[in-house]
Amino acid sequence: MDMLVMTDRALVEGLLERPVSGLVFGLNAFSQRMRETFSAEELAEYAKRVHEAGKKFYVNMNALIEEEDLDALEDVVRTVAELPLDGVLFADLAVYEAFKPYNLTQKLIYYPETYVTSPADVDFWSEQDIQSVVLSRELTLASIEKIGQRKNMPIAMVGHGYLNMFHSKRRLVKTFFDHTKDQDSNALKGKTFTLVEELRDDLYPIYQDDFGTHIFRSRPFASFKVLDRLAGVLDVFLIDTLFYERDRIFQIVDDYAFSLEKAPASKLLERYEDHDDGFLFQETTDVKARGGSR
Amino acid sequence: MKKPELLAPAGDLEKLKIALLYGADAVYLGGVSFSLRARASNFTVEDIAEGVRFAHSHGKRVYVTTNIFPHPDDLEGFVPYVKKLEEIGVDALICASSGMIGLVRKHTNLNVHVSTQQSVLNHKAVNFWHERGASRTVLARELSLTALEKLARHSESELEVFIHGGMCVSYSGKCTLSNTMSNRDANRGGCAHSCRWNYDLFSGEDKLNRSMPFAMSSKDLQSVRHISKLIDLNIDSLKIEGRMKSVHYIATVVRTYRKLIDDLTEDIDVDIPKYLLEIKKAENRLTSEGFMNGMAGVDEQLYNLRSEQPTQAFVGMVLDYDDDSRTALIEQRNYFEAGDTLEIFTPRFEPVLFKVDSLRDEEGETIDVARHPKQRLIIDAPFEMKPFDILRKPK
Asked: What ipTM goes with this model?
């Protein structure tokens, strides 16, 4: 199972020294929820450096593409297609279409966050001549294993990190304060806040950028406890590094590298007591009629 | 000038019939499985068959939503189900999951409409689905008219655009707030509408919202002013949201857009405020024009916590009319009294006010008030009434 890590400039060298399979870089204007993004020209330099270190080079192009952005997408893909790519993550089908003229769809990894939920989805994408699909984040471990056991193409999942649970095109922080005047709405862009629901104590990270408003689960997700089972069905394990301090990211990577070799010790697991199991054991089958609570 | 399809929601068979009789060209409905809106009154296969027979006898169409993103166990029975739907003659399936689209295309000859849950924002994605057998794409609600114009120019398949009703504040299909907070899967029919709850917003320890709870809720979409442009763009289908809305709401909204589309395509001068006033008669949440004019801003958000009250109450529905005695048999839906002035709302003519001179129960006994839900009552009718005509009372 390959281990890929979302990177920024400051992380690159430290990650290359570690037993990761590859690094995932953000691309200016076409990557969402990344620590940093890069110009296509800058990526050419990093691709060289990554390959020199014997690692794989990936670009994340998971932006949703508006009609008016199609020309810019074509322009940037012209440059990105020249890079020595090992893979490109994408969410919008326009990206798939943009890579088709370059015969590069086999480099593509479908990463829509919520849309790959069943073996039938994997079957569908196996017929689209792409490299792999990233499973949805709201799947249980049992569902992941069911999909993995009958996959007919490589599958991936985000195995660690803050999981995004909401994306709106609307600038919800700005519009709220434009309405209430409680704060200067223009001074809030680019900052991360916490959202607390009136009946709950959880703190949900929320921020607003050019793509809209993003809200995350309150605790980051870790999967050390079931890594052996995941490794049995996954081909690629992604570590999302958003919101973490640099040193903690290195620790996380080291801990996964260790856990892939040996069962994680309790001391290692103690470092992740502030994390949770995501949806691995959280069934989401309640409906109001069956007593699902608010 | 091409007249677009007017597509309405059908939460149950009664609403299906109302929507079609009040002017929808097609309805969409959900079965008991594989459909979002788990709380809507979903249809059994037998109900769907009856709905299809009714629609086809009126020259209209029925689309069935199979728009969940299924987890592995949810797919059990899907192929036999869609084969059955093909057998009973449904006109298309609305699918969100790529896997389900693949299965429908592989096992049936049914038309496939790509659901708005796919949040399709550009013509490249429309054409991707077209090449894989989808006959139509339901576009994302985040598109502006300007973007729609460009998109429509390059799209190879039919396009469907939401014109009225509730809006996800998130990109559709990309929200798991409800999954996380309530164990209710937003993409499998369990959405708890967590985006409409009250929150506080903090920067560190500082609470930033001081005057009211932090809210993200959006106003409902209303596109009366933009129908003309959508017709010009040759959009194939104009969709009303609301499988859980009332009969009165469905009838009012469908009838209003029906009249507007007909008037615009027949070069009749339209008086936009008149149509807006008509829709208000059933409106239960503030509306805005969503993203039609560009980025949604403060005016498109719902910060006013009160609900809108429809300007008219739905008090009864006509079940039958007797021409000899000029009386109508009606079913009570809300309280009214003998002597009240009611409005008849019908697909056949403009609303007309009339006074309820006499009110009798089914046995012919005179009564003063209609207070029992679903009670059958007889009223003198000053003009011909027909089944499914709606009686409402100005507030």
From this structure: 0.96
Chain A residue with the nearest C-alpha to that of B140: A66
Single-letter amino acid code for the residue at A276: D
Is the CB of residue B145 less than 8 Å away from at least one CB of chain A? Answer: no
What's the whole-number mean pLDDT along residues A197-223?
Answer: 95
Q: Are A104 and B159 in contact (CB under 8 A)?
A: no
Query: Between chains, do A124 and B118 touch, taking CB under 8 Å as contact?
Result: no
Give the strand pairing for A108-110 and A87-90. parallel
Question: What b-and-e string marks burial along A160-190, b requiring 16 or more CB atoms within 10 Å of the CB?
Answer: bbbbbbbbbbbbbbbbbbbbbebbebeebee
Query: Which domains occur in chain B, in start order?
Result: 5-300 (3.20.20.70), 312-394 (2.40.30.10)
A192: confidence class by pLDDT, cuts 50, 70, 90: very high
| Cross-chain Cβ contact B176/A165 below 8 Å | yes
Domain coordinates in residue numbering, chain A: 2-163+220-290, 164-216
Q: How far is B120 from chain A (nearest CA, A)?
A: 8
The helix/strand count (H/E) of chain A reads as 10, 12
CB A96 within 8 A of CB A107: no
| Cβ neighbours of B295 in A, within 8 Å | 169-171
Residue A291 has pLDDT above 50, yes or no: no
What distance in Å separates the CA atoms of residue A177 and residue B41, rounded to the nearest whole number? 38
pLDDT value of position A190 = 80
According to DSSP, the β-strands at B199-203 and B206-207 are: antiparallel
pTM of this structure? 0.95
Beta carbons of A278 and A137 less than 8 angstroms apart: yes
Suggest the residue from B69, B95, B98 to mutate for an interface test with chain A (most A CBs closer than 10 A): B98
E strands, A52-191, are: 56-61, 87-90, 108-110, 132-134, 155-160, 164-168
N- to C-terminal Cα distance for chain A? 38
- The order of strands in the sheet holding A164-168 is A164-168, A212-216, A204-209, A192-197, B199-203, B206-207
pLDDT single digits (tens) B6-59: 999 999 999 999 999 999 999 999 988 888 766 666 899 999 999 999 999 999
Q: Are B254 and B23 in contact (CB under 8 A)?
A: yes
Q: What CA–CA distance (Å, rounded) separates A225 from A217? A: 19
Judge: A97–B202 Cβ closer than 8 Å, yes or no.
Answer: no
The tens digit of pLDDT for each residue in B283-308 reads: 888 999 999 999 999 999 998 765 66
| Token couple for B345 | 């709302």
3-state helix, strand and coil shares in percent for chain A, rounded to the nearest 5: 35, 20, 40
Between helix B78-88 and helix B45-57 the angle, nearest 10°, is 30
Residues of A in contact with B123 (CB under 8 A): 67, 70
CA distances (Å), origin A45, targets A48, A73, B69: 5, 21, 40
- CATH 3.20.20.70, domain A2-163+220-290, yes or no: yes
For chain B positions 59-98, those within 8 Å of chain A (CB to CB) are 69-75, 96-98
Looking at the complex, report in whole angstroms how far the Cα of residue B289 sits from the nearest Cα belonging to chain A. 14
